[in-house]
Design brief:
Chain lengths: 228, 508
């Protein structure tokens, strides 16, 4: 297989949303054939430049997925499957980014706030952000403000994503932002919030930097804040 | 190939012992008090076949009292075909109604005088004149041949609409009793490739209608094999009276062996007992009388058990289709038909209210779900009917198509197999190894195979109900598609050989 073949296969498997060889993808008969993670190993072994893997394989595939989604051919589950594949690939490539001279797109800490166990929304946002090329560190759910503060101090992310499903727990978002202020870390991180009961108005009222009404808007908000 | 309909595991409202007791009650009704008959031929047929027939009327208006023995009814049930094929111009659209299988199909019905147009107008808030909103308003028109053509074209385009049963009464100025039958059948058959069913206005026009059908089907034998049209006759006027005109039509149609619905439509509380068991015992006796008649005329003539029981409204004595009793009566009748192994023509999807509305949606969905679950083979009245059955509204029919699709998805039996369980367990195990614990990636194949119900297509996005506005847009789109007209050579032949056709309807 040539380098070009491997890159094309990576692109195709991003479109198919296949993380590993066990995934079925969209077309029939894909199970057992290498998925994105196996192909990344193959690409690295074949000496393909990391920037080519990302640009010509992962990003090119994701661009096609985006077009298909816009035209109505693809649905949200397809976008998520493809984003998951890209996220898994980026995780594999992460150790190689620095030596390849590629600057990471940005680091995001994400958590469901204290008192709230609901993490579906947060998980979807994580998949989409990874798919968009960000490094995502997921702290989990029911996370105390002080635990988040400690993680921000240690990880030094550019963004912090906070999620809540309940009206009774959304106030913990404000507590977390207050805790960041008290620890002097608030200015170093952009805080984005999301979840069923919250709104743009609520985000402004608690001093958050951004709001995402769904996973896609969350990515757009991050991209927009990253661009300054 | 035939239209698939939806196969269900039937809901049994009545226990078997109750079904059998009602059957016996019907047989008792057929001998005491028996049936009043206004048709001489039928009276003679019943007498010839061993029924007790007594002349009761005056010489100028003869009537007969029939006491129909159980043996005759049982023989008729035995000789009825248990599977009836309703053919279609496009044979993939034919319906195979098998009395032993609960496969449900949906058809329109009634012969409404009124056609309801939905217009969209912009309204300005009095409180806040800067606020405008688009709302549906309604306009009543009369049924015409042109509108019947539109309804048939709509039937052609809506997936849930399996068979076209004439929707509106054509009241054009140049339509009269003599030319109504040929023109209504021509317009319907020229605008849909699905099965066409209708009543007959004039028995003398049966020959012309059949001539037309044979030309379209490709000959007499072809029409026999692929009966692209069928008839409905309401032979009984409830309670328990064989009407002269419709009985004669049933006799003539049965003689030709064309599929025929023997329907009865008593009103619980006025022309039938209001109690469920009484209503069902009576309507069952009425339908069995009509079926027995057809089998005496022509053993093996294809018939459908046509039950249209309704309940009386106590505030105005109109029919009521929206009350739960309507569904109970119909579900019971479907069980009676199944007890005899006969294909059942049943009723659902009508509302008492005059416009598409919340009340309309609730009333029609109630009967749609229950009657479908009961496993009727041919559910008529299922599209567009409002104000009981006085109004046909094409926008409502567009809504009904979507709602019936949802009902079909709901009643479909799950396919639980070793392979499907293994597949699910693999998914569970795989997902539990991921950090996100989401099953979304496994949805993709089901999404593409149609296994997942799409979002409601007329969902309102803002704070105004846009359902009717969006349904109207869909209607316009569907009606802009070309009509599936017959070939010009066929039309030429029909116009040459079938008298009474109006030239202006040729390319309608």
């Amino acid at each position: 297989m040539t380098q070009e073949d491997i890159i094309n296969l990576i692109k195709e498997n991003v479109i198919q949303g296949r993380v590993t060889q066990d995934d079925e993808g969209l077309d029939e008969g894909m199970v057992g054939k290498p998925g994105v993670t196996e192909l990344i190993d193959e690409a690295l072994a074949a000496g393909i430049e990391v920037k080519d893997i990302i640009a010509k394989g992962l990003s090119a595939g994701m661009e096609i997925v985006g077009d298909k989604f816009s035209s109505g051919e693809f649905f949200i589950p397809d976008m998520l499957a493809s984003a998951e594949a890209v996220g898994a690939a980026m995780e594999k490539l992460e150790p190689h980014l620095a030596k390849s001279g590629i600057k990471a797109k940005g680091k995001i800490l994400i958590a469901t706030v204290k008192g709230d166990l609901h993490d579906i929304g947060k998980n979807i946002v994580s998949i989409l952000l990874r798919g968009a090329g960000y490094t995502v560190k997921d702290l989990g759910n029911d996370i105390e403000p002080q635990t988040i503060v400690a993680a921000v101090r240690e990880e030094k992310p550019q963004f912090l994503g906070l999620s809540a499903l309940l009206t009774s727990t959304m106030t913990s978002m404000q507590d977390t932002i207050e805790a960041l202020k008290e620890s002097g870390l608030r200015d170093g991180v952009k805080v984005i919030i999301g979840g069923a009961p919250v709104s743009e108005e609520f985000a402004k009222s608690i001093g958050a930097d951004g709001y995402g009404s769904d996973g896609f808007q969350a990515v757009e908000t991050v991209e927009s804040l990253a661009a300054g | 190939m035939a239209r698939p309909g939806v196969v269900i595991e039937p809901y049994q409202r009545l226990k078997l012992t109750q079904v059998e007791r009602i059957h016996r009650a019907s047989l008792e009704i057929l001998t005491d008090p028996g049936i009043i008959c206004f048709n001489r031929t039928a009276a003679e047929l019943f007498a010839d076949h061993g029924a007790e027939v007594t002349a009761t009327g005056r010489e100028e208006a003869p009537t007969w009292q029939l006491k129909i023995p159980e043996r005759l009814v049982n023989e008729a049930i035995g000789s009825c075909p248990k599977t009836v094929k309703l053919g279609a111009r496009n044979q993939d659209n034919c319906l195979v109604l098998d009395g032993a299988e609960a496969r449900v199909h949906f058809a329109s019905g009634s012969e409404a005088n009124k056609w309801l147009e939905v217009d969209v107008e912009t309204f300005v808030s009095k409180r806040d004149p800067s606020r405008e909103t688009e709302l549906a308003v309604f306009r009543e028109e009369k049924g015409t041949a042109g509108r019947l053509a539109q309804a048939a074209r709509l039937c052609e385009r809506l997936d849930s609409w399996d068979s076209f049963l004439r929707t509106v009464n054509i009241q054009d100025e140049d339509i009269n009793r003599d030319n109504k039958d040929v023109n209504k059948f021509f317009v319907a058959l020229n605008n849909t490739t699905k099965h066409v069913m209708s009543g007959l206005t004039e028995i003398t026009k049966l020959k012309s209608v059949v001539r037309m059908a044979r030309i379209i089907a490709g000959g007499e034998d072809e029409f026999q094999k692929n009966p692209i049209l069928s008839f409905i006759t309401c032979v009984v006027k409830s309670p328990l009276q064989l009407v002269d005109d419709t009985t004669q039509k049933a006799i003539e149609i049965a003689r030709l062996g064309i599929p025929l619905v023997i329907s009865s439509s008593p009103q619980g509380g006025s022309t039938a007992p209001i109690k469920e068991e009484g209503m069902v015992a009576q309507i069952n006796a009425e339908i069995l009388t009509g079926i027995t008649l057809t089998q005496m005329v022509n053993k093996g003539a294809p018939v459908l058990y046509g039950s249209v029981p309704v309940r009386t409204r106590m505030d105005n004595l109109y029919d009521s289709y929206g009350v739960p009793e309507f569904s109970q009566y119909n579900v019971d009748c479907i069980q009676m038909a199944r007890h005899y192994g006969l294909p059942c023509y049943s009723t659902a999807g009508v509302s008492d209210v005059a416009i598409p509305s919340i009340q309309a949606a609730v009333e029609r969905l109630f009967s749609h779900i229950l009657v479908t679950l009961a496993g009727a083979h041919y559910v008529h009245y299922a599209f567009g009917l409002l104000e009981r059955t006085n109004v046909f509204c094409p926008v409502q029919a567009v809504l009904d198509d979507v709602h019936i699709d949802m009902v079909k998805r709901f009643v479909r039996q799950p396919e639980v197999s070793e392979a499907s369980i293994t597949d699910c367990l693999t998914q569970v195990r795989k997902v539990m190894t991921t950090s996100h614990k989401l099953y979304v990636r496994f949805v993709r194949h089901a999404l593409r195979s149609g296994g997942i119900t799409p979002p409601y297509p007329f969902e309102s996005k803002g704070m105004t109900d846009e359902t009717l506005v969006l349904a109207r847009q869909r209607l316009e789109k569907l009606l802009s598609l070309p009509a599936p007209h017959l070939g010009q050579d066929i039309i030429d032949r029909i116009f040459k050989e079938v008298p009474g056709l109006l030239p202006r309807l040729r390319n309608l």
